[in-house]
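Lecture notes, unit on protein representations.

Consider one protein chain, 411 amino acids long.
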Amino acid sequence: MTNYISIEGKVLTAEFDDSLIGSENDILIFFRDEEKIPLNKLTKYYLNENLNFLCGSGTSVSIGGKTINKDENPFEQIIVELSAIENPKDHVLQLIKFFTSNELLERKFDRINQEQLYYLNNKGDENIAKEIKDYLDRALKIFVDNYIPFPIDYVAEKLNIHELFINKIISRKETLNRPKIFTPNYDLAFENGCEKIGVSYNNGFRGVHMRKFDPDTFQNETYIKQDSGEKGKRISTYLNIYKLHGSISWQYAENINDLYNLKEISDTAKKGDFEFSSLMIYPIQTKKSYSLDLPYSELFRNFSKCLTESQNTLIVIGYSFLDEHINDIIRTGLYNPNLTLIVHSYLLIDENSPLFLQTLKSRSTTDYRIIIFEGSLVGSFENVVKYLIPLNSFIPPKETIIETLKELVKH
């Protein structure tokens, strides 16, 4: 098994015997071999003033998340149904075109949504608009049912890696800025991970019973009051989580009547009673009055702004580099001479890889700000968290705490 690391202008080859892949001890030895894995060179980047993570769908594999393969079309049943319509009208032909296209899923949904809005706003044909919206809701349900894990599927037993990841990245010095997680994933793995281990987080919503979107909350700081009357101590074990493409917990709520009309729901444990007609995942909007830019533009603006700050590191894990909007922000971020980009790619980078990723690899030999780990060992989220994040876990494992308390109770 071949893995490559491009760092400081050099490309290192790290070979691992395939027959040892099931041995945790041998994998540990592999990652501790400094000639193969230059872990000591990574530490300074994790201790930069600003530490940001871009976590793609690869970080959800351990909780049951799936991606739509290149040759897979989950909407075959809808296509068959539409194709069977005799003398199809223009909107039906357009739907067939959208559902059979090779475009990214979000682009398909966007085009279908635009078609619905066209018939609703321009043509004034509410019946056809409703028909298109019904097909869109069905497609969303298929996507959510088959590709997005819900908390009930993973919270009890599958969040260990996310918990360890959060534990490690909040262990930095209190004087450094809090780490930030940017993710296009729709699931709630990072939020659930924080809640399981008692780490406070901010996802852009405020309120308790009615949680509504307010991006200004990303600027909030939380302090613990000191008995001495001195200025409170800032809570450093705190994360900002930016859901760039929305979330299964986001719902359109017209009754809020503010700029975003967006609320967060807490009952996302089951898929059975899920309300798809109000689901907010990028770039789907549900009402004709709703701007296609909000709230996503606010989240992308925050992502772009974070990459302009000094003493900055962006760690990319599990991301496919197929989203042009995200790629553009990374490209612009590299105008910042103080930004270090560390990419973990599960697949080896070759001529079949996204052109943007190929370019990053070629530039890494001359631009020392770009570091690339490629291969199934150095690119997997689990191994990155266990072996390649050079930070200590801040909070002891829950099992350790429970065992300690049990032993103390005996005496």
